[in-house]
Amino acid sequence: MSAQSSSTPSASSAQPAGACPVQLASELAATDREHVVPQRPRGAVRPSPEAAEAAPADGRGTAEPAGAAALRSLAHLVQLAAGGADGHAVLAAAAAAASAAVPGVTSASASTGHPSQPTDSAADSAQAQAVDGAQWAADEGPALLAHSTGEPIWSEDLSSDPRWSRLARRTAGGQVRSAASVPLRSGDDVVGVLNAYGSAPGLDPDRVAAYAEVVSAVLGAARRTAHLASEVENLTLAMQSRAAIEQAKGAVASRLGCTAEEAFGAMVVMSQDRNVKVRDIGLLVAAAPSDTTLDEPLRAALARARQRAAGRPHA
After folding, report:
1. Cα–Cα nearest to 140, from 171, 109, 111, 173
2. DSSP class of residue 56?
3. How many CB atoms lie within 10 A of CB 67?
4. What phi-psi label fits residue 154: left (phi over 0), alpha (psi between -120 and 50 degrees) or beta?
């Protein structure tokens, strides 16, 4: 069978902005019984019913409920994002969960940035790393094309795909045959690529595209969680700094015999002279209110602050 390419609307357009990853995960798992996924890319061939209905078995050899493994894997992804895990941990979990989420996938990888020079990447196996490396070395392949076009790209057999002759030579005789690469998005922007590989033909590009939507949503949630955590940390530091400055103003005013506002002016002048933050001076004074080491430089700074307040140039 000849290799095929596909194009479909962007992953971001298939769900409303801010779509809940848990909802997407539930829809993805339900596709073992009902195909709730974006429009199937043009030129894609649906896999055999046997491959689509195959379900993992537990240690006793009994079949799991359809989609159970996918839901567990995707729940782990959501937990990582909500727990503040970094982007690399989410990418690694996304690659590892692909085989449970998409029938026929035997290995997978995920990356951010351009596939030829990713800012971060993770693979679930040496097989996926080998195919990723082959695409990088050949400077062609489904991952690069998916990133540049913003559309899902797939191939029934990489080793004979006429679109990528250099890649075909590098993958001939390998354990990976079929591949599907789908852009990862942040809004309308392509921020990375999810690559799903199979040891035989029959990967369903619809399922890979749906799974990539979930990964995009989880990555977005992880970024927002990290941003909020950073804001909370900055606000906490600001509050601590303000408390230290207020305490230091009182200590300096008491030792120098000035008002609290004049004490603050002295700390500002001293921070400018010493090229340090007022917060740091405040923390230093607040940490040891009875330490008079800074009294002399603060007295000099107070004199300059008063001169400035009076509109006179300092000596």
Report:
1. 171
2. -
3. 21
4. beta
Name which of 74, 19, 15, 21 is nearest 39 in CA terms: 15
Which tokens go with 99? 């085989």
Residues 6+ apart with CB under 8 A from 253: 259, 260, 262, 263
Give the residues across from 108 on adjacent strands.
Answer: 196
Six token digits for residue 106: 């035997």
238 residue type, one letter:
A
Query: Which H helix or E strand runs over 155?
Result: strand 153-155
Look at the block and give the residue holding tokens 């030829």: 116
Q: Which residues of the chain have pLDDT under 50?
A: 1-22, 24-25, 28-60, 315
Residue 292's SS3 state is coil
- Amino acid present at 38: P
**Residue type for 240, please?**
Q
Which stretches within 3-125 are classed as H helix? 21-30, 49-53, 68-82, 87-101
Which residue is listed with tokens 């209110």?
289
3-state secondary structure of 111: strand
| C-alpha pair distances (Å), 9 with each of 58, 142, 163, 281, 310 | 37, 17, 22, 56, 67
CA atoms within 13 A on the CB side of 61: 0
| Selection from 162, 147, 204 nearest residue 179 by Cα | 204
What would the pLDDT profile of 222-249 be if each residue is shown by its tens digit? 777 777 777 777 778 778 778 888 888 8
Which residues, including other chains, have CB under 8 Å from residue 33's CB and lie 6 or more apart? 66
Reported pTM: 0.56
Cα 91 from Cα 133, distance rounded (Å): 17
Tokens representing 5 are: 């390419």
- Map residue 149 onto helix, strand or coil: helix
Helix or strand (DSSP H, E) at 153: strand 153-155
